[in-house]
Specification:
Blueprint: H1 14-25, H2 27-35, H3 45-83, H4 90-106, H5 118-137, H6 151-154, E1 156-157, E2 168-169
Antiparallel strand pairs: 1-2
Helix pairs in contact: 1-2, 3-4, 3-5
């Protein structure tokens, strides 16, 4: 069966062209997708956490979009049926085009594209990774090479009477609270 020509005034978007190209590549496209799979091999733990957070956020956006589009699609279909005319599917096509555009932008499965949410997330991921590594993962060292004092180690009493290898915690509270 031959494909019917597109009605006048309906332009094929770049998203639709990409979808057609994906369908045409078939298994080869799957191989390409596996090569650019996220998270990529050899990343650190901080970047893995970032990919996990972004993926969960994208899943939430995708679900919210689906939840919002569901009643809109029904209204568009009913309007098309009730109005009829020469093109009863025009409203439904607009909703589907909007859905494709948002699907492209969310880019849930990291297709190699431009103009997606990933353009926003990547610079944030770089900053997240450097902040996590700087504050949590990298050991905190002072300039002499020894560990920097922690609040717990600073509270240890190192008076001469206690310097015989037996450190005891410093008294807490005000000076008047010390035992007699």
């Amino acid at each position: 069966m031959e494909k019917q020509p597109e009605p006048a005034g309906t332009a094929v978007s770049s998203v639709e062209e990409e979808d057609k190209a994906d369908e045409a590549t078939g298994a080869a496209g799957l191989g390409e997708a596996l090569e650019v799979a996220h998270p990529p091999r050899g990343i650190g733990r901080a970047r893995l956490v970032w990919y996990l957070l972004v993926f969960q956020f994208k899943l939430g956006l995708d679900g919210l979009r689906d939840l919002l589009l569901s009643p809109i699609v029904l209204v568009a279909g009913v309007l098309g049926v009730l109005e009829g005319g020469s093109d009863p599917g025009r409203y439904l096509r607009r909703v589907i085009a909007f859905g494709r555009t948002t699907e492209h932008w969310i880019n849930l499965f990291y297709h190699p594209r431009t103009g997606t949410a990933d353009d926003l997330f990547e610079p944030l991921g770089d900053r997240f990774e450097s902040e996590v590594e700087r504050s949590l993962i990298a050991p905190k060292r002072s300039s002499s090479g020894t560990r920097a004092p922690t609040p717990e180690s600073a509270a240890v009493d190192r008076t001469p009477a206690n310097s015989a290898g037996r450190d005891r915690p410093a008294p807490s509270g005000s000076p008047g609270d010390a035992p007699p």
